[in-house]
């Protein structure tokens, strides 16, 4: 009986001992720590490779093929966890546009159903979340033209690179979610046909006009400067204090250097979607490579992925996180420094 009782007590102690050992092991094991959010070269490369591929047939905004690219962008926004504006279900700002070619003003208008792709991340600050920073780029290009063997105008640099920047930034900020101000991420249709998408959104924002702090546009950020320098050009420095905010916030260790537009100022500032927002009275800029429209492949069918520098692109997008931090955190607010027309 005593032996049996001892065995019984041993049987009772063993599970408790084993359980304690398991608990001690679990407590002493290192916790699984999620890696910090980052904008990786691999992620940038994957987006730009797809957006500039032949499968998208040059992203002509007036073709049915355009929906493939737009669905891809919307899916990236959804997967990242962005919120939809009630006015734009599925991240799609749909509208109709009567188009008359600029070279044939007497032509009969053709009506097209178009869409911008838009999502947002709400700010974390109860007051500042009602203020918005908009990151944008056009996602269209020239489509298929001519009868040559290479007749797809892929628009890798122009402007699959800018679209990639918007997607990568949306994914990054959605993961870290440290933005006190709210952030809008938008890609525009039909920039190549006269800034149609950006003009529509600038005049029909889903927020109050007084809530938009600034609009930051990306255009052709796929190649370093012609001399190989890893420069990033900001446009319109005489129009607002955005350039001052950017310059002060750039990390000293960044491989990217910010430069002004120099003699190209008028041509560049008036040449992209930023001007649609500027015309509505908003503070805007475009960030672009100094190479951009001076590049020999600009608006040519050989604007291909293989001619891009993904390392440069990735460093530029990471630098944008640094230079916009004062805006995103609410520590800085740009002001206009020039009145009047464009």
Describe what you observe in this structure.
It is a single chain. Helices cover 35% and strands 17% of the residues. By secondary structure, it is α/β, with parallel strands linked by helices. The chain has a single domain, classed as Zn peptidases (Aminopeptidase). It is globular. The termini are far apart. The relative contact order is 0.15.
CATH superfamily: Zn peptidases
- What is the radius of gyration computed over CA atoms, rounded to a whole number of angstroms? 25 Å
Task: Tally the structural domains.
Answer: 1
Structural class: alpha/beta
Average predicted confidence as pLDDT: 88
Question: For the terminal residues, how far apart are their CA atoms?
Answer: 101 Å
Q: Can you tell me the CATH class?
A: Alpha Beta
Order the strands across the largest sheet as they lie in space: 1-2-6-3-7-10-8-9
Order of helices and strands: HHHEEEEEHEHEEHEHHEHH
DSSP strand tally: 10
- Quickly give the CATH architecture: 3-Layer(aba) Sandwich
Q: Which bin fits the share of residues in helices?
A: 25-40%
């Amino acid at each position: 009986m005593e032996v049996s009782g001892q065995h019984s007590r041993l049987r009772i102690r063993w599970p408790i001992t084993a359980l304690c050992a398991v608990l001690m092991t679990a407590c002493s094991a290192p916790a699984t720590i999620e890696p910090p959010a980052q904008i990786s070269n691999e992620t940038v490369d994957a987006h730009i490779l797809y957006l500039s591929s032949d499968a998208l047939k040059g992203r002509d905004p007036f073709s049915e093929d355009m929906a493939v690219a737009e669905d891809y962008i919307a899916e990236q926004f959804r997967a990242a966890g962005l919120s939809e504006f009630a006015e734009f279900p599925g991240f799609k700002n749909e509208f109709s546009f009567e188009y008359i070619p600029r070279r044939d003003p007497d032509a009969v208008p053709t009506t097209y159903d178009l869409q911008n792709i838009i999502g947002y991340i709400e700010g974390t600050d109860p007051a500042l979340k009602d203020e918005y920073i908009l990151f944008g780029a056009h996602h269209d290009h020239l489509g298929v033209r001519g009868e040559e063997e290479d007749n797809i105008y892929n628009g890798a640099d122009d402007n699959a690179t800018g679209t990639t920047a918007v997607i990568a930034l949306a994914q990054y900020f959605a993961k870290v979610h440290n933005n006190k101000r709210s952030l809008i991420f938008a890609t525009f249709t039909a920039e190549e046909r006269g800034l149609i998408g950006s003009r529509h959104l600038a005049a029909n924002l889903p927020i109050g006009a007084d809530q938009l702090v600034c609009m930051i546009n990306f255009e052709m950020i796929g190649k370093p400067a012609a001399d190989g320098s890893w420069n990033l050009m900001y446009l319109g420095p005489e129009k607002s204090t955005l350039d001052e905010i950017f310059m002060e916030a750039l990390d000293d260790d960044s491989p990217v250097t910010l430069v002004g537009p120099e003699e190209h100022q008028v041509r560049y500032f008036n040449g992209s979607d930023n001007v649609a927002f500027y015309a509505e009275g908003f503070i805007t800029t475009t960030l672009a490579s100094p190479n951009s429209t001076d590049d020999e492949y600009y608006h040519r069918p050989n604007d291909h992925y293989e001619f891009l520098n993904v390392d440069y692109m990735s460093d530029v997008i990471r630098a944008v996180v640094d230079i916009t931090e004062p805006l995103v955190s609410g520590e800085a607010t740009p002001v206009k420094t020039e009145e009047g027309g464009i």
